[in-house]
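batch job 7 of whatever, protein = Vacuole protein
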Amino acid sequence: MEKNDYTPLPQHDQAPVEVPRQRRATWKLAIPVGILFLLLTHLTTSTMTGKGLFGCAGKAEHGAHMKGHGHAVAHHASLLKEASCPAQPKPISVGADWDIINDESYADKAAGRLSRAVQINTVSFDDMPSDPKDPRFDGHTKFAKFLEDEFPTVYSGLKHEIVNEHAHLFTWEGSSDRKPIYLMAHEDTVPVNKDTEDQWTFGPWSGEITKDHSKDTPGTWVWGRGASDCKNSLMGILGSIEKLLEEDFKPERTILIGYGYDEEIGGGRGALPIAELIEERYGKDGVEFIIDEGFSGISDAYGARVAALGMAEKGSMTVKLTVNTPGGHSSMPPPHTGTIVNHRIAFTSSVHETKKHYKDVVVPVAKKLGFSISYFGEEPEERKAQHLTISVVGNEHIDGLEPAPITPADSSAFGFIGGTIKTVFGKHTVIAPTGMFANTDTARTWNLTRNIYRFSPSDLNESGGIHTVDERISLHGHLTTTQFYYKLIRNTEGWEA
């Protein structure tokens, strides 16, 4: 694969699509949430100068746009070089294929399985206890029994380990000493607000299966909390393993499958101990690549079919400012009253830079007004009646979470995954890097590999309601998810990386 072998986006007879300006592309990612939601995604330059969320820029349009801008052209040219699409891989298909879409008996089985998975409540709340044996985690015990009953072939054919009570690690030993690949999912879900339950078309734990319910949900769909996030991926991975075992497939490269039970609240009880166990066995950087869930998937954008691979992930930090001042009546307020602080965070800000900003901006003002100050664990010698506390809050990543290391786009893993995507979703699919604007369990896996991909292998139009009302996924979307993992594992045969 040549590094300069770029594949341009398809050209049409119509007028070319206007390339979004830098500011517009930036604002598509900059979503303020809460008092201080730290958007630390350090994406490649392409994300902010190219095609919206995707790291693919149209060189011709940018070149024309910059004509006549004098000395700025040279600098912008260097950005354009970075903003080019990665070399596009060729489709990869090794061994047998599975025409899962036309496998009616399996489709019926898959719909029923996913429906039953949704009916088991595995909610994570922010205040979940640290002890995994607490009764509040009992739903995961029930879910574990369900999976073992549904996939007996997988449980008997692979090495299965329970990690920290409710997390699971499957190991399918390969015949070679090549680095393993690691496929991830999680079984927990976000809660359902009781005030919104009557807004659901079907009960959030019903696992309702519909056929041609509406123009927006043609064909077969499965409804309920967790249908898309993330029991679809979990069931798809296990379904693909089951099929391969039935075909007597024996991998050359070891396949690891892990799923945690607290991703929605940070992954410290599930993904973290699994990652520590894997690192203990295979060493630092001992995994070839990781694929986990992502908001990115298959979509139509700018006249092309695009598969967006999440190759970066934002950091996060919640800062709490507490101001204590003597009381008084609102009709006669003191000269200085408590107020709010608003601060925009740059994409590339680190946790340290953000803390320093608060210290540099807030502390001098507080001192001038006669406040004593506690900031990020540093306490004053004397605490006054007027006191300001600046702290990081949250029960996960209590010191803040840095942006994830950026996955390289010139690696063999990128070409391998991209080639598999082209086989499953069409050879003209453009493989493009993007950034994940939410956090995933991969935040716990940075020591295992530099090749971390966040990707949902289905059309983004085939799911909806994630983290809100009417969560659902089409059966077709679930089947393509299963098909992708099946082909991915098949393709590892002979792949040297």
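notes: The chain has two domains: 100-313+404-492, 315-392.
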